[in-house]
What we know:
The protein has about 325 residues and is α+β, with helices and mostly antiparallel strands. The chain has helices at about 20-30, 90-100, 165-175, 230-245, 300-310; strands spanning about 10-15, 35-40, 45-50, 60-65, 80-90, 110, 115-120, 125-135, 155-165, 180-185, 190, 200-205, 220-225, 250-255, 260-265, 270-275. Strands 2-3-4-1-13-16-15-14 form an eight-stranded mixed sheet. Strands 6-7-8-5-9-12-11-10 form an eight-stranded mixed sheet, with helices on one face. It is globular and about 50 Å long. The N and C termini lie far apart (about 45 Å).
Amino acid sequence: MSATPAAGLHHVTAIAGNPLRNLNFYTRTLGLRLVKKTVNFDDPGTYHFYFGDEAGQPGSILTFFPWEHAAPGRGGLGQTQQTTFRVPARAIGYWTHRFIANGVAYEALEKRFGETVLSFTDPDGMSLALVGVPGAETEAGWSNGDVPAEHAIRGFHGVTLLIDDASRTGAILTDVLGFAEAGREGSIIRYRAPGAGFGRIVDIYEAKGFLPGRMGRGSVHHIAFRAADDKAQAEMAHKLVQDHGMHPTEQKDRNYFRSIYFREPGGVLFEIATDIPGFAVDEPLAALGEALKLPAFLEPHRKDIEGVLPALDEKVA
């Protein structure tokens, strides 16, 4: 049985603090669309926000569990060091000025693999970057009125994983998840999924001897990779067990996709998520993110859940 390659990243899920601050930063400052407003299925007193492009396409989705009193995380081995978004190459200047105007902490421009990178942090200390991609201006950009469409984020560029030994993680990326090694620069090994567009890069920063990270506010909780459907996902799971000694979970229904999880050899929690059924399964595309959506098993408890969730200013969503 051979695995059907994933087409790159599906989503990235991180931990935030104050939910309204999180919502404001990603919809207003970064101009992403609130694609879905739901709850953490395992902790329904907590929101689960999904931010992405207009259609909520796989490869554009950054999700958050906002826990108001979460302790700050600490970067280190076994964690996602940075999450990067694509923007048109000529938009980098616009974003630098926007960060200055909005008081966003950012770093000096740098080059990675020939591309211009603008690194910054969100209000919870999460490490992010914008990567200037030539030609991205020809792709559709979501505009919420704050960020002009021509400068808008075009989904993920990729993620950087901080790992002690890249070899076994790299083997899973190439053998199971459909990536191929695309280059090396210093201690960073770049893997790329086939095709064009967003969410196709995984960089492994091999850093032997670093301290392990600590999960918390500002940390990435897990990285999800794409599977076209249940069959493709099952083939990947088989290959993980048979060829790599991994022990993925049973499939879990997340309403908008179906998921399996495993901790890859470097310590990062990986997910494989189906592209189907997508975010329009419970509300029309034009209304994505407007209403609080609950899975069927939580719907009978809607009144109690709404009673404990922090109030949000609907005008910023």
